[in-house]
Amino acid sequence: KYSGEFVFSSYCFRDEILTKIECLVKNMLEDLANGKPMKFVFNKRGHDASTRFNQRVGLQMEEDAQMTVVSLEKECSINKFSVMLRALSLCYQLLQTDSYTTKRDLYYTDKNIFGTQQVVDEAFNDIACMLQIPRNSLHVLASPKGIVIGNLVFRDNDDNFIDCSQSRMGTMVPSRVDEIHDFYSKARFVLLVEKEASFQKLNDSNVISKLGPCIMITAKGFPDINTRIFLRKIWENLKIPILALMDADPHGIEIMCVYRFGSKSLTFDSENLTCPSIRWLGVLPSDIERMGIPSEVLINTTDSDLKKMSDLLKRPYIQSNREISNQIERMMDQKLKAEIECLEAVSTTFATDIYLPSKIRSGDWL
After folding, report:
1. What is this structure's pTM?
2. Which residues are marked as active site?
3. I need a labelling partner for 274 at 20 to 30 A (CA). Which of 112, 221, 304, 318 fits?
4. How far is CA 264 from CA 49, 70, 76, 125, in A?
């Protein structure tokens, strides 16, 4: 069972995980021999009752979290038990042979049992939570999604030097991100950009040379685990500020919060995924009026947006940060939202020549 005292290492050794799986299976077989149903027991993920907020770490699993029992005794959980058992078997094989595969490839190894890709994803999250290990330690990788460019050099899992300033379009965040090391950079900060389109426009505008030595990263929308781990590693190794450039809408705020505070479904691995030092640089709802953004590029909020913002305001990490909650309330009052691209309506170079330099120089972030 998870304990608040337990801290995950960024990478767990194979032998430790193999031993955990063997002990788990041994206990299940002993239950079967004693006439008891085989079952998986792990902390209930993704529920408010199992989640607490820690200013230093972000969202964490409660020490006395509710438990989920997946048992052959219950008809409703037989299918999930089969899925988890099959997934655990595949992980064990990968760990034994020290090999890696992607979630997508594993799905195709047994489509009849798994059914959908989402079922596979949930199974591996549950197994990692049950074994109390980072999910990537199961040797099941997500397809690369994030892109990084700028003043950053590191070694990958094969000890190759990766220089992120060399590729004009950016370097993909490695799939085996747990094993990258030897970070070197003269960057003064990281610019975390919500969308790939905005990332590429800023890159085409030569934003990195205009802002001075920096690193720019995007996960192309909602952040994947690899990009979150990568960002956390940069923060731990370089100790430089991380500034988030997001759309001024509920979705952009949600994305920034996942990077900064974590997600309820992965609270068991927050130590490796969250960056509580991230600051919201823009686009702030208060910037819309202050910067003179033309009304024709602004977007009316929908009922769904208002509901999302109301939900955000109830979250503990928003309630503990009055500056962020003020911005959300301002957006609700204005009933307007804006994308990063709205800055281009002032001028094509406004974002790179005025908006970003002035906000960074003055420390205008939340």
Report:
1. 0.90
2. 108
3. 304
4. 10, 20, 24, 12
